Amino acid sequence: MGQERSGKGGHLLLCIACCISVSLWLCGCAHSLKQSQGEQDLKEAKHLMSTGDYSASEKKTLVVLEESPQMLGDEALFQMGLMYSLPKNPNADYEKSRTF
């Protein structure tokens, strides 16, 4: 009826599928690395707040809020509200803490 295909087209499709799979996998890794960096920054901000360095904690929390608002925004906002409501904080502002 006809000649058999040599099979080169199948290998090309396999290579394209592998390239797409690898690129999607790398995008997923970059997303999780960014999230883990934000989580680490929030932990550092909590530690700074517990040691009494409220201004450094505020700066670190604002960085997290700007860099990853979708992933860690709620936790960063909670951290900001908590920081402004602490009585030991010299810049405590209860009205401002209620906005967070």
Shape: rod-shaped
Structural class: mainly alpha
Order of H and E elements:
HHHH
User: Low-confidence parts lasting 5 or more residues at pLDDT below 50?
Assistant: none
Termini separation: 75 Å
Mean pLDDT: 81
Content of β-strand: under 5%
Helix percent band:
over 70%
Give structural notes.
By secondary structure, this protein is mainly alpha-helical. Helix content is 81%, strand content 0%. The chain has a domain at 37-100. It starts with 7 loop residues before the first helix and ends with a helix.
What brief labels describe this structure?
single chain, about 100 residues, mainly alpha
Q: In short, what is this structure?
A:
With 100 residues, the protein is mainly α. The chain is built from 4 helices and no strands. It has a domain at 37-100.
